[in-house]
């Protein structure tokens, strides 16, 4: 009887071991299949695999964690390629966006966020959230590195993440790190893409910039909006003293002076100044010189405002503007359609000089555009514009 009990017990134990082995084998097989689906080129398979993982309720093991991190990296590259290809005209869609949000959330909860590669991959996803930001100091070098990447949306995303970091996670940052973030954002004000500059502009007022821009300077910048040109001139004269080629505050000041010059251009064109004309002219000339010297003339916004300024046609500034070639040609084309005869005449004179001295900077298509402008203005209602256009057209040949 005793022998039968031992035999029965041994059989049950053997069956249990076999069941566990079969179950483990099935789990391994299921895990392998899951990892393969997560790496699939078929988006529906990847989405389905993530759904299975979520519904299982179990924490992913190390192999699955690695597969999930690799998946975020894969999706990042797919999204960036799609956005680049469409010139950011096509979005990713709500369905795909929800999947990405869930994916990033799972990785943030379960992955080792002390790993630099994992952090970098997550930061390159627009759905990165609190889990990543909670790393504080560790992500700052990665974000400032992203500010140097060629894809503007990555730079914009880095600016926005830095904003969230400073606004919501300030306690995790040292004063030195906040100062480094401020400097990085100031440099982003010079970014060649307007969306990046706008993101930086929106952030800067919310960040303590005492290390770069003092309270007095801030008040002076506000004074530039005054309706009284003398108060604007007074504020500019004081700010002008702080403008240096390498000064940390120069970018912020120049960003305030550019719309000021645009405003003064309109006033100069309209002839609205009736008193203190000489004083106003000296203020205006210094403002134009400051902006044209310390701003990036190759920036379209800067070029448009400076090109429409009032300057002598034999000044060094003209050569600086014309050296921009086709970009300047676009500005002069717009100017040639001005309601003001003086502006139209200036456009014709400068286009003629562009063709004469900077022909190598414009292609054949743009040359035809210039000829058409001369042809159109040769019928201008203003005699001086008409004669100058006819002269230019004759000079370059039909």
What would your notes on this structure say?
- This protein is mainly alpha-helical and 398 residues long.
- It has four domains: 31-134, no CATH class; 137-205, Leucine-rich Repeat Variant, CATH 1.25.10; 213-310, no CATH class; 313-398, no CATH class.
- Helices cover 71% and strands 0% of the residues.
- It is built from 20 helices and no strands.
- Helix 1 (2-38) packs parallel to helix 3, helix 18 (341-357) packs antiparallel against helix 19 and helix 18 (341-357) runs parallel beside helix 20.
- The radius of gyration is 32 Å and the shape is elongated.
Q: In summary, what is this structure?
A:
Helix content is 71%, strand content 0%.
Distance between the termini: 119 Å
Number of helices: 20
User: Roughly how many Å is the radius of gyration?
Assistant: 32 Å
Q: Tell me, what's the shape?
A: elongated
* Percentage beta strand: under 5%
- Rounded mean pLDDT is 82
Structural class determined from secondary elements: mainly alpha
Low-confidence stretches: 1-6, 18-29, 206-212
Number of domains: 4
């Amino acid at each position: 009887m005793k022998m039968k009990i031992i035999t029965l017990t041994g059989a049950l134990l053997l069956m249990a071991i076999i069941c566990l082995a079969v179950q483990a084998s099935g789990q391994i097989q299921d895990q392998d299949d899951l990892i393969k689906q997560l790496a699939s080129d078929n988006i529906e398979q990847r989405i389905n695999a993530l759904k299975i993982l979520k519904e299982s309720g179990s924490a992913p093991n190390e192999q699955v964690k690695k597969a999930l991190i690799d998946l975020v990296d894969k999706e990042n590259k797919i999204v960036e390629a799609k956005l680049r290809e469409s010139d950011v005209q096509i979005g990713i869609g709500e369905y795909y966006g929800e999947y990405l949000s869930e994916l990033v959330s799972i990785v943030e909860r379960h992955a080792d966020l002390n790993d630099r590669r994992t952090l970098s991959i997550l930061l390159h996803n627009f759905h990165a959230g609190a889990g990543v930001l909670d790393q504080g100091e560790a992500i700052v070098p990665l974000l400032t590195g992203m500010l140097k990447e060629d894809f503007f949306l990555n730079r914009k995303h880095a600016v926005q993440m830095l904003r969230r970091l400073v606004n919501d996670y300030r306690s995790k940052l040292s004063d030195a790190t906040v100062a480094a973030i401020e400097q990085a954002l100031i440099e982003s004000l010079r970014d060649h893409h307007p969306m990046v500059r706008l993101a930086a502009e929106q952030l800067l007022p919310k960040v303590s910039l005492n290390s770069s821009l003092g309270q007095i300077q801030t008040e002076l910048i506000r004074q530039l909006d005054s309706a009284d040109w003398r108060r604007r001139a007074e504020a500019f004269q004081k700010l002008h003293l702080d403008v240096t080629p390498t000064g940390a505050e120069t970018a912020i000041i120049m960003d305030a002076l550019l719309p000021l010059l645009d405003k003064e251009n309109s006033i100069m064109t309209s002839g609205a100044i009736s008193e203190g004309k000489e004083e106003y002219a000296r203020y205006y000339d210094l403002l134009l010189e400051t902006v044209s010297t310390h701003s990036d003339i190759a920036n379209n916004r800067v070029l448009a405002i400076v090109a429409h300024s009032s300057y002598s046609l034999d000044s060094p500034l003209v050569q600086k503007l014309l050296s921009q070639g086709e970009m300047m040609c676009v500005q002069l084309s717009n100017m040639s359609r001005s309601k003001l005869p003086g502006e139209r005449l200036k456009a014709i004179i400068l286009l003629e000089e562009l063709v004469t001295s900077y022909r190598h900077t414009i292609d054949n298509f743009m040359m035809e555009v210039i000829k058409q402008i001369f042809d159109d203005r040769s019928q201008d209602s203003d005699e001086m514009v008409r004669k100058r256009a006819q002269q230019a057209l004759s000079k370059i040949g039909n």
